[in-house]
Amino acid sequence: MNPDELNRIAQAEQAALSRHEHAINVCVGIACHSGGSEQIRKALEAEVKSAGLQGKCLVRGVGCPGLCAEGPLVSVEPLHRSPPQELLYRKVTPADAPALVRSVVREEPLEQLRIDANQPFFTRQLKIVLENCGHMDPERIEDYIARGGYQALIKVLTEMTPQEVIDALSRSGLRGRGGAGFPTGLKWATVAKATPGRYPTYVPPDIQSQKFVICNGDEGDPGAFMDRSVMEGDPHRVLEGMAIAGYAVGARQGFIYVRAEYALAVKRLRTAIRQAQRIGLLGKNIAGTSFTFDVDIRLGAGAFVCGEETALIASIEGGRGLPRPRPPYPAESGLWGCPTLINNVETLANVPPIITKGADWFASIGTEKSKGTKVFALTGQVKRSGLIEVPMGITLREIVFEIGGGVPEGRQFKAVQTGGPSGGCIPADYLDMPVDYESLAKVGSIMGSGGLIVMDDTTDMVEVARFFMDFCMEESCGKCIPCRAGTAQMHHILTKIQQGKATARDLRLLEELSNVVKHTSLCGLGQSAPNPVISTLRYFRHEYERKLVPELERV
Amino acid sequence: MARTLTINGQMVSARDEDTILRAAQDAGIHIPVLCHLDGLSDVGACRFCLVEVAGSNRLLPACTTRIQEGMVVQTDTEQLRNYRRHLIELLFAERNHVCAVCVANGNCEMQSLAIQLGMTHSRYDYMFPSLGVDLSHERFGLDHNRCIMCTRCVRACDEIEGAHTLDVFGRGAKARIVTDLGMPWGESPTCTSCGKCVMACPTGALFKQGSTVAEMTRDRSKLNFLKTAREERKWIV
Amino acid sequence: MSKKLRLATVWLGGCSGCHMSFLDLDEWLFDLAAAVEVVYSPIADVKTFPNNVDVTLIEGAVANEEHVELVRTIRRNSRMVVSFGDCAVSGNVTAMRNPLDANSAEVVLDRAYKDAALLRPQVPHDNGIVPPLVARVMPVHALIPVDLFIPGCPPPAPRIRAVLQALIEGQTPEMIGAAMLKFG
Known about the structure:
Radius of gyration of chain C: 18 Å
Shape of chain B: globular
Strand content of chain C: 15-25%
Order of helices and strands of chain B: EEHEEEHHEEHEEHEH
Distance between the termini of chain C: 39 Å
CATH superfamily of chain C: NADH:ubiquinone oxidoreductase-like, 20kDa subunit
Number of domains of chain B: 2
Largest sheet of chain C: 5 strands, parallel
Number of helices of chain B: 6
Number of domains of chain C: 1
Largest sheet of chain B: 5 strands, mixed
Number of helices of chain C: 7
CATH topology of chain C: Rossmann fold
CATH architecture of chain C: 3-Layer(aba) Sandwich
Strand order of the largest sheet of chain B: 2-1-5-3-4
Helix content of chain C: 25-40%
Strand order of the largest sheet of chain C: 2-1-3-5-7
Number of strands of chain C: 7
Oligomer: heterotrimer
Distance between the termini of chain B: 27 Å
CATH topology of the largest domain in chain B: Alpha-Beta Plaits
Largest interface: A-B, 32 and 36 residues
Structural class of chain C: alpha/beta
């Protein structure tokens, strides 16, 4: 594979596409998939065939366009009109296929299913990571290449040194999208500088001398499906990001760690790896250079703690998914004691556009310290829920009220929870705060991996805290005392409060314990587990106090 | 190569590869530990040895953190004492630790630690989990009520004896020590009945059958003796 | 001479071993008698818990409904409440029934009155004679705030003496080191 070959594939694919007049895109992301989109796709294909429209009308499965609450979604994309006037249809069933195909032929919108593609849900978004989702078939590498895919990898291999790649990443200001927001360029530079073999383990010498790239796809927050959508909707972009990372840090093997529950993502990633290997975009001597890089998939068994990097590495090694104290960080001693770069799916998916469009372009989006966009899974008491991608620095109000359409009629907005079980609840007072790493941390929450749960005035905040504590307690690996016994005690006290059996003494103990668990736990799971309690105590303390009983009335 | 660091205001000299715990011990500075045992690898799980290191915004476990030139360490601040008190109280409330009827009463590291940390009572509600006792082995017993999941037995079995009969099953508060794949200890085909796990146990969770209250004593230094003998060919008693 | 300290000692769900250890103070008991007035105790014939108690030592865990009522009265009527011995401090042996069923005493009653009975197995339940057991045995501080804890099963006599001596002298006893703190 060389640049010319890549261009030839792209041109052939674009030419094949342009022979069609319309593309009917059926969302095959997991939400629409479970809504029966595969049957819709078959029905549409049959309808197109019986109408004799093959060659004019292309029916294809595409990644998630985002508005999952309205799925299954189908869009009709005219291929020869500019600007393309895309029509979007909601809650489509196989029975709608004839009407839909008829409307395509007549070039008249099918009004009863149509949703406004110009509503704020779509127009207020800025898609970088998700730019291909909804517009290409995730199971065809040619589709990806036709949309400019793998150009970044070829450019990196033929025009840039590893150091230049790292410099570009640093200049772009990209920060880890897994939640903590560590500067990606700095992480890459650390791995690139690290010497293999400094932390010997019982593995063969040829492994000890290597470096590794790991893509963390162990998305585990309740209600989060950001990484899932990327892996399902645009798997090649993740592979491309990994290969670029491998080149930059000097690794020749990558691992994608995905939860086994993400069967569709696993299937598409497997297909993608096979396709990339077949045309020489993964494997030996990529693009005729000396660079060799391959990717393997490792399945996680659904333990939340395996999203923590050291636990994830232990799991890939075949051990129990237990975290270990850092330092040494994986950048120095990771997989089998080798220097290991471990990045989140979304972080890696940001890499190819940074290379092709330039670091300065990326740095021009977002705020001073938080660059680019962030994908959120917008859920909860909100009219339009789904997957969104917004520029950093957008306000919470814009996300909740403009994109999400606000809380359902007759209810009042109360709080928004970001960062999942590791995050916090942000009250209405801070709705106009920009969404970036620092601002969220300042109000006691975190960016997290991108869960965004909207709550209305019927929400019991103590119950919210208890729900997340229940999650953390169940997911604690049990290795360190504060997380294992501490989260169980926190959950116990919260339950007592809910049962009307707690006194002011219990609340004080809960606060002290939050502090202990936060500061003494071994890994991020325990360190952040008290956040929902701390933040609800900070903003909704009266809800706790209202439920306390006097000391001598304790049951 | 020798390095110099400061622990509790005292200048301490240590070897390059030393951990903070080792450097402190060599200098006669006491740091409380529970999951650490000389001769076994360190896992940093019990969190009692957390220390404050200048320049780090997190507390670091002394048992796994390597020293650095010029490091400034505090091992016994008000904050650390407070955290350690909470940790020991959490531990006592977690399972059914009844010193009065325990084989290890008077020879228990957890009991000693409670005294050392000034624990008069646990502020936490006791959880009273329903846990079993495995008495299927002809010589030893495993009482889950008294287990604190320090995994010293697991490491002794794996690293010193090389049998890896013991491991951990389940997660969170439901984590348990298991023999092989969860079969009764007495039926384990891999257990060599060497008793190193019993030697390593800090509490009364692992004991010799037949011992009654306060009778269970152990010589934990034997593990370190074996390790030094094997790895350094030195027979230091 | 200053007013004598009004001392109460209470026996809840425990084996009375702590009181036995208390009596192990032997001749020092004479000094104690000179310094305190024992206003309520299993070894004094007083039926109701009095008012204005300075120090109450509670032996035993809260195991039945009478205990629940009593500790609340104790808290209202005492300046200082002391958990006296491991059962009061942690539940200890008395609480060893909890793991059988942490939400009900039934399993214990069945074991004692039905499973082990040879003739007419039944749980006695005439109201007002024996106070019903609480579902879960609790240490005293789970129910009321406690000011001082004396661990030990039983606390050795010198430990009890050190605490009482300090209290008589109007000081807070220093609960530090194995001599003062060891459980079991």
